[in-house]
């Protein structure tokens, strides 16, 4: 069975059974599938419709993704920076959801729904990395190297753990 077939089966069973029973994990997974077109066509409005109840019931990933959607908007999804900040704060308050920590750090680093806060981004990347999030480790490394090298540092001269000689 292919991955897409498995995802379609999950969506079919999840969409009706779990979401009708107000199951926040199922709602969050289904929303994620709609947002990124995993096994189904992308549908940002449907993603939003499933993220909202999942986020309201405390699902950290749904809160983080909803914060992102509210910050940047997508076709048929309105931008609301105040609401984005509210969801980011809820993610922060949970303090234990690795994906949420990563998304919060990303938002703080880029100023998505909040002021740019590199110190805060570093804190949340470190926290997510301490739970084994490899993406956070990589982002943290780049953030720290950029801090040491200066804000205009692109990383192009850092190759395989060593600085490349100047051309």
Automatic annotation (TrEMBL):
SUPFAM superfamilies on file: HCP-like
The protein, known as: 10746_t:CDS:1
Organism encoding this protein: Paraglomus brasilianum
Pfam families reported for this sequence: Sel1 (PF08238)
